[in-house]
Amino acid sequence: MIRGVVMPAPQAPLELREFERPALEPGAVLLETLASEVCGTDAHLWKGQLAGVPYPIIPGHVSVGRIAETNGARDVDGNALRDGQIVTFLDVYGTCGRCWYCTVAHATTRCPERKVYGVTLSSEDGLLGGWAEHIHLKPGVHIIPLPEELDWRAFMAGGCGMPTALHAVTLAEIAFGDTVVVQGAGPVGLCAAVLAQLRGAGQVIVIGGPAIRLEAARRFGADAVIDIAETTPEERLERVRERTGGRGADVTIEATGVPSAVPEGMRLTRDAGRYVVVGQYTDVGTATFNPHLDLNQKHLDVRGCWGSDVGHVYRSVRVMARYAAQFEWTDLITREYGLDEAQEALEDVAAQRVVKALIVP
Amino acid sequence: MIRGVVMPAPQAPLELREFERPALEPGAVLLETLASEVCGTDAHLWKGQLAGVPYPIIPGHVSVGRIAETNGARDVDGNALRDGQIVTFLDVYGTCGRCWYCTVAHATTRCPERKVYGVTLSSEDGLLGGWAEHIHLKPGVHIIPLPEELDWRAFMAGGCGMPTALHAVTLAEIAFGDTVVVQGAGPVGLCAAVLAQLRGAGQVIVIGGPAIRLEAARRFGADAVIDIAETTPEERLERVRERTGGRGADVTIEATGVPSAVPEGMRLTRDAGRYVVVGQYTDVGTATFNPHLDLNQKHLDVRGCWGSDVGHVYRSVRVMARYAAQFEWTDLITREYGLDEAQEALEDVAAQRVVKALIVP
Amino acid sequence: MIRGVVMPAPQAPLELREFERPALEPGAVLLETLASEVCGTDAHLWKGQLAGVPYPIIPGHVSVGRIAETNGARDVDGNALRDGQIVTFLDVYGTCGRCWYCTVAHATTRCPERKVYGVTLSSEDGLLGGWAEHIHLKPGVHIIPLPEELDWRAFMAGGCGMPTALHAVTLAEIAFGDTVVVQGAGPVGLCAAVLAQLRGAGQVIVIGGPAIRLEAARRFGADAVIDIAETTPEERLERVRERTGGRGADVTIEATGVPSAVPEGMRLTRDAGRYVVVGQYTDVGTATFNPHLDLNQKHLDVRGCWGSDVGHVYRSVRVMARYAAQFEWTDLITREYGLDEAQEALEDVAAQRVVKALIVP
Amino acid sequence: MIRGVVMPAPQAPLELREFERPALEPGAVLLETLASEVCGTDAHLWKGQLAGVPYPIIPGHVSVGRIAETNGARDVDGNALRDGQIVTFLDVYGTCGRCWYCTVAHATTRCPERKVYGVTLSSEDGLLGGWAEHIHLKPGVHIIPLPEELDWRAFMAGGCGMPTALHAVTLAEIAFGDTVVVQGAGPVGLCAAVLAQLRGAGQVIVIGGPAIRLEAARRFGADAVIDIAETTPEERLERVRERTGGRGADVTIEATGVPSAVPEGMRLTRDAGRYVVVGQYTDVGTATFNPHLDLNQKHLDVRGCWGSDVGHVYRSVRVMARYAAQFEWTDLITREYGLDEAQEALEDVAAQRVVKALIVP
């Protein structure tokens, strides 16, 4: 039997349950879990803030494991997978490739068929989340081996924040030498701050908190940090302008989850600059802005960024492997928890007591 | 002596004053005015809604004239200008080509040196606006001859709405077959509706009013019009979704001047669509939106569009000339006014009694 | 029994064979063929100029038909299909959605799994080409209904030239008012000349022949045509420069199939212009160019364009329907042939005696 | 009197001449030269391979100096310059900001008015090149102060290769994790290899020679180098494919000056990849390619890259300052020469005996 952590319903205590070893369909893989992430989304799931979740679920949408069994599966590069390989996989499953969004709009993250491991797949259908000893990768799941130079702990330090940030930073179209402001110092914000340097930013300013996260931002190369708890919006605007010849950031990336951060981010950005909003993952209310001053006269470019696709994870693996000597990825991991400590992990993440928490079965 | 209409101060009655014929610097041109536009901006000027205006001014920023005298000036294509030629010119004067915005950001419409004929140049400095018998084109003003196949009345029917809309529609990156919603049926909105067809839109839906303008939208090819006065936002959203398989517009272009139109436009646009805001020309207040639903989860791309440059006017002239057989441009002109009727023209425009009004000295 | 035209091998005479009515898998459709195109590709197939063709095949990759039977299939918009509907479909079948090209590079036309109806599917596997009374649309084939305002003959007049040209013109990123040169006056070239107008080109110049095709170019709105048989490359360059202030075309689109056209096209394009190469469909030899003069110093942007995807066909349908009143699409069809006249049709196309030939069973 | 090195005519020996100290026009600056580059362009100038050069000239187009005198000049950020500041400047002078290329095409590097310090300005007009004790910066020259954290020697190590490479790498649109091949290991190629890492490339492969330059490529982070002298084109293609799952480079950047490198580079690049050609600076002959195989079927994107503008130099300064701890820029400098050693410097550069040579007066 295989043990897995089940979230039975919003607010209900997590439970450790046993599952049978699944029979593998052609193209499927059984993964022995090495680690699975506990991220802000899991806290949202537990609070019941996401719609369309088929509780009970096994949480854990970004995971890494060793192949225990494979029934003829191949990786994204088309190579046959073999037992013992260490791989990750895209949590998104079932994007149809046939609907209007997939084929005409080329916006696969909007495909209505997409399901997400650990989020929108029920534990009644099997081991479809990462907080378990094994994970059942259905046929068609996009599997990506980790290169030798990328330790699995290092990869998990990025977790789902890395492909999310990679998507956002790609949309941000940073030019060499640009000033980049990142709003938010959680996993997405920290990854964005790193990736901005890997786009040749001229300076990276991280706005957020608490201190533990701002220190991490410093260690990961931020040129300046601004503590959200110790400044007013006016002061933050003033600090950014001081460092940019009075103009504001060329590019701002929002990763906060707080609605009022959005109009503030518009103001932090210079005229004709670009603003990417990636942190408004749940509906926690509205914000007020001035369409003339904050958008139209500014000639501002604002981009909402939702979801990741295969390419974002594939590229995250490549980047983390290539620049592993330059950035101490594992430094982002605060603590590892056993399956029976999942409840504690969830609460630590919800309270922002940790930067990154892992379940290590 | 040369007669010109002067706006002495906000709210003060227009006056007809006399000016001396200017001596031309090398590279300057004296234009005999054929027509100058009365546009919404002039109403804003009169109401005192724009900052930094050096009253008294001669209004009129988009004009066409016959060259009365030239001191060695050349047009944008580099050809020497000659007496009698019918030309227009970019109202923007003095963009420096040396500042950070001009040279590094390539955002010339944000150059702090730019002045605008008829808006930010004072009548104390001469004939620097279009509502006059002659206009003094300083050295460096960008001059564009009208091709023979483009009657000057046809060109003026587009007025400043055409390059503004051309800029917005360019930013909108319409793909072949896209559904385009235009919010607003004034000169910018109508021009945007035409230009969307010249990008191969699959359908163009104009939302606005009053009836006289929606009829013009119909004549200029709109596939559907929605009267703002007879519908609620929910009904408008419903109508757009009915025509788009439930998805919303691929591209929406805002040209209304009303802040609440902006969040509405975000909702009218489909997931992963694009929204261009060009109509929020003055500060008339704030708007409220939901960053999660309206921007982030939608994966929406929002672009503020400010100002025109030489290319926009040059391309407007080319497009209006090429498609003059297809679109009856002059149909946009409601009435021509003499210099001594300028006050009436201004009030007709402010009250939206006309689509396009011209001063014809 | 169902009759279909079979091409047994390169150079071998076409044969009329009988096929059994297929049983439909879930998601499949049986189409009663209304018409199928005879295009240049079919001539290449017959001459054996394409690699990887599993002869015998039923040619015909762009077709339109009436639904005779459906086993629960849906169209690209997600709507259930019903008997009697008139539809077309993307000839490309089997793009995997899982390989590196599909998921990381987002270059689905490079997917190694893609097969093409009428080209790389064998008649031994059934009615998988359009020159037959019925066509078997396998599950997953992308099906697009024709809107009422688009007659099926009008749609077929575009044939595979329209989505090919739409792809090329999209890559060409034509700006409003640009001068567009199209090299080649076959179906792709003519469609490109039309679509350039639907991007707001300032003028469209078609270079090609013979006279029958140049006349068609004129009727479809080309501002100028240049007969390839009556001019030297130097004369053509001279003519284009005369019409562009000495600069050359802003955008050039190649649709000729002749290697030497490519360096000529580079020279016809202005400095910092864009050149799209879509007509080099088979390997007929090399060309020589000067990398300094023709590419580097010109700051030229050159784009090879290969294959179409669902979006190109979907958008073609939308555009042809929307602008059917403006362009007399059926004017492109020279002749319709019965199934038993397929050999004659093929030879007429190979000899360029017709603009567009249809098989109408 | 001020001493400067003059190149009297192609092939003629360099001469040391004396110039009078110029009187400064308003907006002009007199720079005390700290260093000026000897680059491949100077070798071309000396061999007479560039057209339109008004010999005699003072060579030296990329230089750094201390402000000796200023008549009210401002830097690109708009700040007043002051005596003693260490600055560089864009060698391009006189871009008009009014012609069609400047205003409509937004292709300022194609402006017919642009002159280049050290290349197309004659020594008969003054100290308009860098190989002199002082340089006369005319009004309107774009001046950029070096930040404190960027030593002037470090900046000069990049020289004109850095903004050239920055332009090319920007055009290359590298995505995170891409494989980037750089053809050529001279100053432009080495800078491109560094900048590719600052765009998050997954691996960088440098093809070139001789050994001294490939060692520099290794030190500057290249993941692999291929010696052009020890491999055939087929072997190089094989090596690149081995490292890319058989596909080829996502992005290739050419910086060789050898025409045959261009078709080779097309083949080194994967289907639907991108190829930037920046090294074909002079006309040294033609190349042959197969438009079907090398361009069209490959769906290849090829971009010629010519000239730099203010933004490229401004951004180079920012990037070199920000990443000075990571890349040992001065390591690129092989040797410094006095004014009276200029002839030797020129010959060393022409013979590729050095990576980067500086004149230090």
Automatic annotation (TrEMBL), chains A, B, C, D:
Domain Alcohol dehydrogenase-like C-terminal: 187-314
InterPro entries per the UniProt record, alphabetical: ADH-like_C (IPR013149), ADH-like_N (IPR013154), GroES-like_sf (IPR011032), NAD(P)-bd_dom_sf (IPR036291), Zn_alcohol_dh (IPR050129)
Gene3D superfamilies: Medium-chain alcohol dehydrogenases, catalytic domain, NAD(P)-binding Rossmann-like Domain
Keywords: Oxidoreductase
Pfam families per the UniProt record, alphabetical: ADH_N, ADH_zinc_N
Domain of life (superkingdom): Bacteria
Alcohol dehydrogenase-like N-terminal domain segment(s): 26-147
Gene Ontology MF: a single term: oxidoreductase activity
Protein name per Swiss-Prot or TrEMBL: Zinc-binding dehydrogenase
Protein's organism: Solirubrobacter ginsenosidimutans
